Protein 1
Amino acid sequence: MITIEASKKVCSPRQAAQLSRGLTPFLYQAHHAVGLGYPATIRVAAAVHQSQCAQSLTPCSGKRSFSTTGSNQLRDVFPIKDTPYIRQTPPAWEHPGYTEEEMRAVVPGHRKPETVGDWVAWKLVRLARWATDLATGIGRDQQVDMKNPTTALVAEKPLTEAQWLVRVIFLESIAGVPGMVGGMLRHLHSLRRMKRDNGWIETLLEESYNERMHLLTFMKVGAPGWFMKTMILGAQGVFFNAMFLSYLVSPKITHRFVGYLEEEAVHTYTRMLHEIERGDLPKWSDPKFEVPEIAVSYWRMPEGKRTMKDLILYIRADEAVHRGVNHTLSNLKQKEDPNPFVSEYRVGEEKRKPQAGLKPTGYERNDVIG
Ligand SMILES: [Fe+2]
Ligand SMILES: [Fe+2]
């Protein structure tokens, strides 16, 4: 990274406001990523510091850490358009929130495949993991024990921050697809068959919304380059169509597939947490690193609990919910069973209401439907 002296510059109130939203004003090229063979894939954001001009709304000058990255890359990735009447647009689905204990209770887990459909889903996810490892440039020494790929956490060598970002941005761009496809197809089914859906659609759409919030959050930490954008574009084209056909043919196997995919997500974030805790990812272990404002407001992260580690705890808990929801939905009768996660239980049966995040293998039909 090359440090240069920033020229004197006056911040307009609007620029200052944008900066003060806790964005990442100082982006630099991930040099270690270049060394690993990811030259055009991602730029990692430096620790987010509120700039002096943002705090004071006055002319600012001074030393800043810039990279050789073009000035256009220093802009906010999602600049808010000023509108005459609208002040802000809050999220349509409020995050339910978690306690610290709930987030820490999440553990990687694995549901053993039982049926042929389970095996198909499991093997497809193995294939996806292999392709992702290959695309992320994960070396043999960075692999965990592949006999227990969704529960083993220790590898000889950690991933770099750039590798993590490539991985999570790619995965989150994919993870938002199945819920939307499932929700859309169930919505259309309800319309054309003139039947009730019993609460599945909202949960599936909310899941895809939540995944998109994960993606938007990571986009504030590091912005992908043209190569990765192209990969994401191609992957979405293939994955959307595959999910569409798969959900039409067998929603049961598709939910199992998503359940296994979410096992991978919980594993990914648990391993990332370990590496942050061990200090293997120095920028993200830095107490001065502040998570983006979009994350603070979406998860309502309390003051003093806004480090990268806190953020990953929230995201991992979300993934654990998706894992439990999809494994459970796969165990249900797809056309007739109500969604137990949004249902009210009869008096005396309330304890049967499932808590998705707590059950890595999902709930069996007999336990939640009867
Ligand atoms: Fe996610
Ligand atoms: Fe997920």
Protein 2
Amino acid sequence: MAEQTFNERTMREEICEIGRRIWHREYVAANDGNISVRLNANEILATPTGVSKGFLTPDMLVVIDRAGNKLRGTMKPSSELKMHRAFYDARPDVRAVCHAHPLTATGFAVAGLSLDRCTLPEVVITLGSVPLAKYGVPGSDELTQDILDNYVQEYDAFLLANHGVVTIGQTVMNAYYKMETVEHFAKISLVARQLGSENVFSPERAQELMEARARYGVQAGGSCRIEYKDKDKNVNYAPDVPRTGFGAAAYAGASDDNANARPSAQSNNAANGSNGKPAEIEIGEEELRRIIGEVARRVAESLQK
Ligand SMILES: [Zn+2]
């Protein structure tokens, strides 16, 4: 019993610390957001309603059971804890839930855009992608319905349409770090779109990253999007060391004169064979070495400028 008390005290302090971080980083305004951790099979320690997450003290937290009944604490549990309980029920491996409204990621959720493009190694490895769940009234079963039906077994971070972000993890810190990753990813994605192009990994490059998860001890994490349609404006495959297929074709299509220009939609189209499939280009080892040497030379050159 003494050990459990120590554990609970540590968890209370950790939730308060994460509360301060999400408030400082403007992931929440006023009393928004909530954080919880599963203390044991039946007890959930959580933030109360009506308090800024930036000013939490350990004694303000409440303990509820898996059915939502308050067991300990003087304050009122948040109505959004229903969502937390749904995650604990659906994913026995999950021990913590973090919910906030970070500015950029919530902007994507309001714009009806998921964060599912394969553009950053860390994001592909840790999250795969961040699906957008259909809108549901806060505090209702509807809020989590789409996540439970379609995404919860595969993903650890979700955009809630016209609402915010929720992340799940094995510890409070782990769930919070995923919240940071989502917002960071959203900011970078927004900047790339403002600059006019979001270059995505080729399917094989994306696959390579997802297969690397075991090396980093990442257990969950679904796939990011591999296929793109015409309506996905300004999405190109990232310039890459040529292997075969789409990425190689786009790279090989660049002449010396325009090799510094990023591959345009036209060059991607030009790389397609007449049957609509990417043209396969065979590249020998010697040619590959030459290209790598050339890329290294240009990088060194640009650094000297
Ligand atoms: Zn919310």
